[in-house]
Amino acid sequence: MGEVVDREWMERAFESTRNWGRWGSSDERGALNFVTAEKCAAAAALVREGITVSCARDFPVQPSVENPRPAEHHMLVAGDDAEALGIPGLGATTDFIGVAFHGMATSHIDALCHVVVGGKIYNGFAASEVKSTGARRDSVMVAADGIVSRGVLLDVPRLRGVPWLEPGERIAPEELERAEAAEGLRVEAGDVLLVATGRDARRAAKGPWDPTGVGLAGLDARCIPWLHDRRIAVLGSDGVSDALPGAGIEGWPIPVHQCCLVGMGVHLLDNLALADLAHACAARRRFEFLFVVAPLRVVGGTGSPVNPIAIF
Amino acid sequence: MGEVVDREWMERAFESTRNWGRWGSSDERGALNFVTAEKCAAAAALVREGITVSCARDFPVQPSVENPRPAEHHMLVAGDDAEALGIPGLGATTDFIGVAFHGMATSHIDALCHVVVGGKIYNGFAASEVKSTGARRDSVMVAADGIVSRGVLLDVPRLRGVPWLEPGERIAPEELERAEAAEGLRVEAGDVLLVATGRDARRAAKGPWDPTGVGLAGLDARCIPWLHDRRIAVLGSDGVSDALPGAGIEGWPIPVHQCCLVGMGVHLLDNLALADLAHACAARRRFEFLFVVAPLRVVGGTGSPVNPIAIF
Amino acid sequence: MGEVVDREWMERAFESTRNWGRWGSSDERGALNFVTAEKCAAAAALVREGITVSCARDFPVQPSVENPRPAEHHMLVAGDDAEALGIPGLGATTDFIGVAFHGMATSHIDALCHVVVGGKIYNGFAASEVKSTGARRDSVMVAADGIVSRGVLLDVPRLRGVPWLEPGERIAPEELERAEAAEGLRVEAGDVLLVATGRDARRAAKGPWDPTGVGLAGLDARCIPWLHDRRIAVLGSDGVSDALPGAGIEGWPIPVHQCCLVGMGVHLLDNLALADLAHACAARRRFEFLFVVAPLRVVGGTGSPVNPIAIF
Amino acid sequence: MGEVVDREWMERAFESTRNWGRWGSSDERGALNFVTAEKCAAAAALVREGITVSCARDFPVQPSVENPRPAEHHMLVAGDDAEALGIPGLGATTDFIGVAFHGMATSHIDALCHVVVGGKIYNGFAASEVKSTGARRDSVMVAADGIVSRGVLLDVPRLRGVPWLEPGERIAPEELERAEAAEGLRVEAGDVLLVATGRDARRAAKGPWDPTGVGLAGLDARCIPWLHDRRIAVLGSDGVSDALPGAGIEGWPIPVHQCCLVGMGVHLLDNLALADLAHACAARRRFEFLFVVAPLRVVGGTGSPVNPIAIF
Prior knowledge:
Four copies of one chain form a homotetramer. Chain A contains eight helices and 19 strands. By secondary structure, chain A is an alpha/beta fold. In chain A, strand 7 (about 120) and strand 8 (about 125) form a beta hairpin. The longest helix of chain A is centred in the N-terminal third of the chain and has 11 residues, at about 5-15. The interface of B and C includes residues 78, 79, 80 and 84 of B.
């Protein structure tokens, strides 16, 4: 990769890819604006077989080195006391779920208010708009009616002929284009772009690891202008899209998050499970599909756990 | 309505509509088996415009008479301390969500293990399979790859020419058929059948009310054989499908839940928000659409909060 | 009661009872400073019999009109799956508790940072010191080593010869002094003053009620100078000390909370259960006792659920 | 140490120290019955100075190798939005706490229902009495009025002249007696016995470690008959009283827990912070004090987070 990515490069990249004002000064949807009705209808037309593939990991209730704040699944009433609800004749079992979903284990969507750069969130709103009582701007509610578009999987391990990328490895924009060529498609405006790094396969083979310590494969910062040019609506990965550890650029520890969420208004999907999807795509030699993301409607939320569904 | 629905009628209805063994003795998917790949593909082909409509209520964090155990949305880090994650240069806001979703306020899917009849859950497994540590059978994981099928809205208030049905009102199967006729469609195998009662409109006009005390409009138990005959995959409502209060039949307080979940293996969607969907359907004179439900992948779960998306 | 309590009166009362700077400009303990070692030792010397009486309500897990955000008690592993921890030979049962304890049902202590007046908390720190990530000043940790002092119960229903005070009834300082006289004691510096209103008895007889709607008996604002003069360390009640509804003084909806927590630095104990204590005191004709409050050590917390123990 | 502790020894020890029926067939309080009113009064008479020392760790919200399921402290309303409660003129900050307290980081009390041996809990009740909806027997409510007795600290590192015991080290009953002698006291009926292992000091020096992997210092199983003979009411430690890893005796992975909780009916206090207490005792050359434990009143609970207070 040619250019030197330093602090100045990052600041220029942030400025040049920023979509503030592009859809008006009070816009909170960002690049979701690229998902037009036509785009959505065309995505639905991609469905041929009617096969669905989940792109989420199981709700991560087990602690591990990559899951220091596990999700909670608490049975409230089980079969041992199914009459507990107290309605005569009714046996029922119930449970509770809870999760601080930002992190490295829960499959989730980041709302645009999740990251702050220079005291601002997407479209220039002040970070103080995100209050202890909820986000007044750029919350996950902008996606309340779901994100339904064409999903595109760029399978980088497949391109490289390896089962997975190693933690810390960076993907350059040129490699994304080689993946496009290998897969016979082109990432377009309004797409949900999913970049696989083989994280599930590595975890299955080697066990979980601490992403903040050991690292995660992800996109090099040089991909940022490319993502902007292609006008993707949403970016997702089995990792967190950013490569970890960061490149050590002061002020830019997770540049893809920072430029996508804050600058471009591109939502992120983190910690997806893409092994099944990659397998389904390879078997069909088809890497585009209808893709549906349905966040929980958390008013003022900074995101949501999600189970995105790809449909072939 | 002609027949007398008493305890004997209910027991005969449960037995005659029971699908235990229909898909094998170890089946846990129940009527989801009616959603074939062909059905799913045909549903996707219903998409013409690419307009999406959420069928979920906002995550119900405010207590009210219909919400005695509110959901939790807790900001963990807000804009006032966005550096708190401790990664130099990173400003981020995060939150936690939690919910005991079974109840009358959260839009959710009931897994087949949620209700027990005679010590059994769907397909004859013992209620003791639902342990304090999770359900070993019939959990929400059977829908982990999403439920993607044709959605059909039967808008009963529209049929009756009223803004909503009153709490406690019952819908007979004959009325479901009149709605079909008025809407120019027929409920078929594998459909997700949504029955609107106008609950959102009534709540907007009169404020929330306690469903267990005041009641909810819903399906009369006589609909149970009809639901079975039509081989629906999933049943949903802006209420809980069952009319409340129950009809006072000993042992059958919520017969639709009991027969659908336990007998037929038909998943239920409770507390949906159908006002927007009803409006969208009426405007188009079209009451069928692609419908996507994506539960969180809670291993051993009795259900999940969901945000089902209808796509026109 | 003679004086007119209006906005001017309140502002004068707040100013004249304010202890800011009394114990130094960086003090966060407030009136806990009145609980000297001598005071604590003298309180322990009050113990004659060795009988303990809890002053807390049961952890309030059931919703009711006074409990719109119930506490959570979730069994994680029960006897039906006691081997679930996975340690060979070990059977164990475990659970989870959670609570948003400020409210009208959980027995809890308010830390001094819980209330804000004019943008300030106790000792003049800015409200912004209480961040979305925790309170940097005046947190519950100032009481981390426990509050151990003389407890004094002023039983106002007993004084009046009634089983309880009605919601909204106000207690004047003169009445507190009549209770002292009737009980043969005098509230002194460093005391934990508990004022009973008979709330438990009324709830047992009439069922729970909505305090914000119907009201709660409590102290009239005129008690504020009296509380200051007596140099109490902590104020508690079976209610919330303040009478509800408020007296309608603009800016002063809960003047006892506002003046005690923010001005005087007097911690509050809300929603105590005082029926057993009142009974124990009356039986002994003794209304003073060793009193121990042990908050959970929540760093940055605005309070804690507590189970205060009176020891005779 | 002379005897061989094998499975037979354990079974004999369990049988010979079992207090089932000692206080009647429906007793659920176990050795708390040793804390008579006289014992409590005598404990209060130990107070000379009026100095209080907390024996709890801070509420453990940070993940670490010893804390894989951190406690939760979520601010609900902070100073940035103190008007959020919506009561005109009221500024207030609030929070939520939650914890699955059994584990290696939260200071907590184990109720007698927490451990199961041979399908039974203390006093022979069936483990099935501990339901998914709560424990019907032997819950933490038996201590609802607090545990107030003489506390005795046996400081084993002090005895050995070391700052801490190493993970896995076992303490023999002879060593407990040598500590008694060094401290000039004798553990008696009704005492709360606290055994320090220096865990806090080791953590401060070396950082946290995984107790299940690396180990914890604790009592050798040979202490079990000694604990029974001395008729202690409660046993606590900065560890979990049991030495980890276990001694490898089939069926007896944590014999102290198993014999104390199930057999003797002796409650356990785990993960206490005893460094401050040890220091306070050494400075005074006094290792006995008034000790107060006040569990939250969780109906059906398997224990509670606690902040036990020692009073000199």
